[in-house]
Amino acid sequence: MTEAEILQAAEQVEGVPVTEAEVGTVTLAEFEQVKQERDQLLDRMARMQAEFDNARKRDAKERTEFREFAVGSSVEQILPVLDNFQLAMKAQGSPEQFREGVELILRQMEEAMKQLGVQKVETIGTQFDPRFHEALGSIETTEHPDHQVLEEVRAGYRIKERLLRPALVRIAVNHAQTEA
């Protein structure tokens, strides 16, 4: 290898111009060692990039599989309720028998929700809490404290502290308390 080739190669490896005086101090063996180290680092970097891409793909696949498993577990809890609704629709009986059947299905659905960790948001008799309740209207009264929930229009649900749906409620407005 000529001095000019060594100069050019050294500039490519380090990215810094090398003077002819410095070329004399760099031996061909040292240059080859630096070049080999560079090649090893480039190979290592390419492998790490491939490992990172594989880990990202594996994580996305595991998330999808977990989501499918969670949905499957939930649906397994609800399938018997669906079966009973279908049987109720085919049933021939009195309105009272039909109502009793629907009440049984409702209890079965509430139990399935309980098994899934879903809890009903407390409403009637509690103070209005905008984190869990959505006020649909108000009822003027002097018998109940101001902002107490008097009526539940639609139930709200949560899993632990995560709100799935707020409860729609009507709240008390007690002017005697607000003016005092």
From TrEMBL:
Alphabetized Gene3D superfamilies for the sequence: 3.90.20.20, Head domain of nucleotide exchange factor GrpE (2.30.22.10)
SUPFAM superfamilies per the record? Coiled-coil domain of nucleotide exchange factor GrpE (SSF58014), Head domain of nucleotide exchange factor GrpE (SSF51064)
**Coiled-coil stretches, from where to where?**
31-58
GO CC annotations on file: cytoplasm
Q: Can you name one GO molecular function term for this protein? A: protein homodimerization activity
Any single GO BP term:
protein folding
Keywords (alphabetical) are:
Chaperone, Coiled coil, Cytoplasm, Stress response
Primary localization class, coarse: cytoplasm
Annotated family = Belongs to the GrpE family.
Its function, per the record, reads: Participates actively in the response to hyperosmotic and heat shock by preventing the aggregation of stress-denatured proteins, in association with DnaK and GrpE. It is the nucleotide exchange factor for DnaK and may function as a thermosensor. Unfolded proteins bind initially to DnaJ; upon interaction with the DnaJ-bound protein, DnaK hydrolyzes its bound ATP, resulting in the formation of a stable complex. GrpE releases ADP from DnaK; ATP binding to DnaK triggers the release of the substrate protein, thus completing the reaction cycle.
> Subunit comment for this entry?
Homodimer.
Name the chain's protein. Protein GrpE
Please report the organism this UniProt entry assigns to the protein: Terriglobus saanensis (strain ATCC BAA-1853 / DSM 23119 / SP1PR4)
